[in-house]
Amino acid sequence: MNEFELIRHYFDRRQSVPGVIVGVGDDGAVLAPDPNTDQCQVIDTLVEGVHFPVGTDPADIAYRSVVVNLSDIAAMGGRPRWMTLALTLTDASESWLGAFSSGLFAAADKYNVVLVGGDTTRGDSVVVTIAMSGEVEKGCALLRSGATPGDTIFVTGTPGDAAAGLALLQQREANEYLVGRFLRPTPRLETGRKLVGKASAVIDISDGLVGDLGKLLQASGAGAEISIDRLPLSDALRARFDVDKQRRFALTGGDDYELCFAANADSVVELAGITAIGKVTESTALLCLLNGDVVEVDDSGYRHF
Ligand code: ADP
Ligand code: MG
Predict the structure, then answer these.
(1) Which in 32, 182, 214, 215 has the greatest CB count within 10 A?
(2) What CATH topology corresponds to 3-137?
(3) Per-residue pLDDT tens for 143-152?
């Protein structure tokens, strides 16, 4: 199969989609964005051996590559529309490509984003880059920078599951739920949309709750106190790891793609799937409290002062 046939077979679906004037197949895509919106543009690269273990099912690699971008769109309050895919392959085996494209379109169809172009090359390891654009009402994109002292800090879902899943995967141990949270995280697009006009600051958690909340606070020029005992932990995480590990995964593990946001608590009471974990403060420090005591959290976990 030559490159042209490969693209045609695995990535060109020739469907007609509103807003896509020209999709895969020409020198560039021609798109008609909704004129009443601002465009959010995001991009993420996943490198084999760095962002996913060598030997990961290509369907999962593709699914995850789409979701990590959707998560950034969710954190901006956007609705996803289009994506392009730059794919570096070590070989072009048909079974690999078949699985990859099925995972890619499974995520794309589930979350309503359309592949409109890309680039395919050969290299020494698998590298997947997806660039995606989404739309949000003019002037309404959610930013990291608006957290205000007195706001409540919330998190979606149950952070820590993906990092626990990756740890199990690396030890070749099984746990369908936890490993699934790593391989196929849920982009919080619905929550992101509902936060438009409500949240004062939003970030998605790719590097770990404490690190990413720290970025939000820095952008906002504020600090926070969060309670470790209020972290929402999944039953699967609790059943599989001791309490220290559970908290370590939830605080510093990455790859969850949950949203962390600041908001006036009254404005989000009706939102499902969120948990209040703390408050924005005037100081610029991020304090983690355990039973009222401040504990220090770093990359290797947390420890008492
Ligand atoms: P060019 O040489 O003009 O850059 P290519 O031969 O690389 O074009 O690509 C031909 C068409 O196929 C373009 O529309 C491009 O966007 C699309 N394409 C290439 N690789 C992929 C891919 N992995 N996924 C989706 N579309 C792709
Ligand atoms: Mg060209």
Answers:
(1) 182
(2) 60s Ribosomal Protein L30; Chain: A; (3.30.1330)
(3) 999 999 999 9
